[in-house]
Amino acid sequence: MMVMGFGIAIIWAMDIIKGKFSHMGHFFRWSNDGGDLMWPHIIAEYLTAAGLIAAGMGALAGLDWAPPLSLVMLGALCYTSLNSLGWVFADKKRLPYGIPMVFGLLGGIASLVILIWQM
User: Are 59 and 111 in contact (CB under 8 A)?
Assistant: First the structure.
């Protein structure tokens, strides 16, 4: 979870630092090629990243709240990975972004199965 959380945060940070959206003005005006606003998606991605990191740290520490948070965050990881794969399918130039998304989806599903099995 922590690796995927940091991975999500780093991928978005790289896009932002590279200026992918800078020509569009301030944060709340950023949009994708289809004209959809990006700020809700970016915020959701960073919340997912933060939650995955927190759940992973809690799990490593053996804290009681870690398993329920892990279930929620692994579900969020599966959702965001599958949702973001749609962008890869729509634009083949984004294929390198798809590789970690596939790992996120498959890893999230496998981790959910293991976590539920252990509960």
Answer: no
